[in-house]
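S.,

As promised, the S-adenosylmethionine run. Input:
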Amino acid sequence: MMNNINPSDWIVNQVELITKKNKINTIIDVACGFGRHSVYLANKNYKVVSIDIDFKKLRTFTNNKNIRSACLNLENHEYWPIQSYFDIVIVVNYLYRSNFKNILNLVKKDGYLIYETFCIGNEKYGKPKRKEYLLENKELKNITDNRFVIKDFYQGIVYVPAKSFKQMLVAKRVAM
Ligand SMILES: C[S@@+](CC[C@H](N)C(=O)[O-])C[C@H]1O[C@@H](n2cnc3c(N)ncnc32)[C@H](O)[C@@H]1O
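Predicted complex:
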């Protein structure tokens, strides 16, 4: 099974910038996969909640004392399973448009959403190629409503771990 073991450099940099200036108690890694971001953060001594639908992936890393994991389906239209708020919400390489609003709602007041995933244009370079898995032009910017202030946004080519086309957003929640 394909497994990028290194965390995204961009995610690491953004977390460092935020944690320099803010006291961070809780971080959630949404659709965490094999937990490359969860493990990186847990090893830095942050308390991390790691969510994925795939139990086999979760069990590869969740013996870490700073990680609480939960095997949850985030695409059940009847029920959104996470009722807590977090100082940092991380989403990487995962897109399911119907849960955008629920993901935004996970962010505490004065907390941050850090979101990185593939966007339209990526089909030239590799997978994913299907529109349902590719953000539209500036889509991450457009989904953040007026409770959020955009702190960073990038749309373009990324070279690591492979050439791809991505969007990256950091947004701070300024109102509930
Ligand atoms: C491409 S992987 C990204 C993993 C991780 N964020 C990373 O960057 O390494 C997408 C992940 O989304 C998870 N996923 C897919 N559908 C899901 C669902 N309905 N609920 C929760 N997780 C889901 C998959 O199991 C997979 O681990």
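The longest helix spans residues 9-21. The pocket of S-adenosylmethionine is lined by residues 4, 31-33, 36, 52-54, 57, 73-75, 92-94 (CB under 6 Å).

- D.
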